[in-house]
Amino acid sequence: MKADGGTLTALAGNFALMSLLAVGGGNAAVPEMHRLAVDVMGWMTDRQFTEMFAIAQVTPGPNVIIVTLIGYHVAGLLGAVITTAAMCGPTCLFAFYFARVWDRFKDRHWRMDIQTAVVPLSIGLIAASAFVVARAADYNFAAFAVTAATAAIVYLTKVNPLWLFAVAGAMGLLGFL
Amino acid sequence: MSASQPPSLSDVPASPFKPTLFDLFRTFALISLYGFGGVLAWSRRMIVEVRGWMRPEEFNEAYALCQFLPGPNVVNLSVVFGSRIRGPLGALAALFGLLGPPMLIVILIGVLYAHYGEVASLQRALAGMAAAAAGLVIGTVGKMAQPLFRDGLSPAPFVALATFLGVGVMRWPLLWVLAAVLPLSIALTYWVRR
């Protein structure tokens, strides 16, 4: 773990920009996080990224907490704090000021158009994050089957996803995957 | 503003009791700690049903706004809601409640992961969980996409597909894809409405 100034600045700058581009929530930014951390910066392997994604999903709290794990992995405690602040700070300030302004235009057509136009974009981004994670996680047929089964159960039922994580984790532990 | 207008974000909350800063912190910390695998359901339950701080339609409106804003939705919700109740300090109290406890937990996990991440049995369990995590996102996005196909032929599915291909398959930088697709999507929405 190296916490030199250049790394911390890279974490802060990249995640601050990313937070403002993450239309559709924390998971919408996952493909960009992966591109940055694995492809561009080489901070971690594909497998490590996928594991951190899984850990963030089973940890209580918002899923965006994956950025804390990434920051810790790259630059220790300071990295964890800086990355989380960068991912949440700009967008929180934006939300704070924007909510008041936006409320004033609630009956305008252009406001409704913009809100409608953003929805399919966020869905496309979350689909991309599913694709990026699945491509790394499904390294063999058994893992692919677990992904497909989980997707079907989540889509068709209201089962708490934690049970699915527990079953899939146990299957992995026992060597079925 | 006349009395007949629907409630807006700047109105007073449904409850006659104004939550203190500590109430905000504690409630969002609880939301966060209960919220395994998604915090939205718990934030609605706590804010609307348990605390009675918002009416259901007020919550939907606030949440729709936070989904539209960039950044993590529930984080935005904590800021918008906290600031509505107690101004900037309220926003900070709700935000720290939401992020503080999971940050501590995940840093602890990060320490363990750094030490034991290469242990074979843990690797196998994590591999299984990662496969399930991918499935969870696929199933969720399937549910989210359903309304896109409801109103006949609309540009929405194509916009979603273009975004998916650009960011997920081509791996182009998010900034470029957004700069191209967002204006296009707004223009198409405007054109279809007319």
Could you please describe the fold and organization of this structure?
The complex is a heterodimer of chains A (177) and B (194). Chain A is mainly α and 177 residues long. Chain A has one domain. Chain A has 7 helices and no strands. Chain A has helices at residues 5-21, 30-40, 46-58, 66-104, 109-137, 141-156, 161-173. In chain A, α1 (5-21) packs across α4 (66-104). Chain A is globular. Chain B has 2 domains: 21-116, no CATH class; 142-194. In chain B, α1 crosses α2 (40-50), α3 (56-68) crosses α4 (73-116) and α6 (156-169) runs antiparallel to α7. Chain B has 194 residues and is mostly helical. In chain B, 73% of the residues lie in helices and 0% in strands. The longest helix of chain B has 44 residues, at 73-116. The two termini of chain B are 29 Å apart. The chains are: A mainly alpha (177), B mainly alpha (194). At the A-B interface, α1, α2, α3, α4 and α5 of A face α1, α3, α4, α5 and α6 of B.
Domain tally of chain A: 1
**Shape assignment of chain A:** globular
Mean pLDDT across residues of chain B: 86
**In sequence order, what are the helices and strands of chain B, one letter per element?**
HHHHHHH
For the biggest sheet of chain B, the summary is:
none
Describe the structure concisely for a colleague.
The complex is a heterodimer of chains A (177) and B (194). Helix content of chain A is 78%, strand content 0%.
Spell out the key features of this protein:
heterodimer, A: 177 residues, mainly alpha, 7 helices, 78% helix, B: 194 residues
Sequence-ordered SSE layout with sheet pairings:
The complex is a heterodimer of chains A (177) and B (194).
Chain A: H1 5-21, H2 30-40, H3 46-58, H4 66-104, H5 109-137, H6 141-156, H7 161-173
Helix pairs in contact in A: 1-4
Chain B: H1 21-34, H2 40-50, H3 56-68, H4 73-116, H5 120-145, H6 156-169, H7 174-193
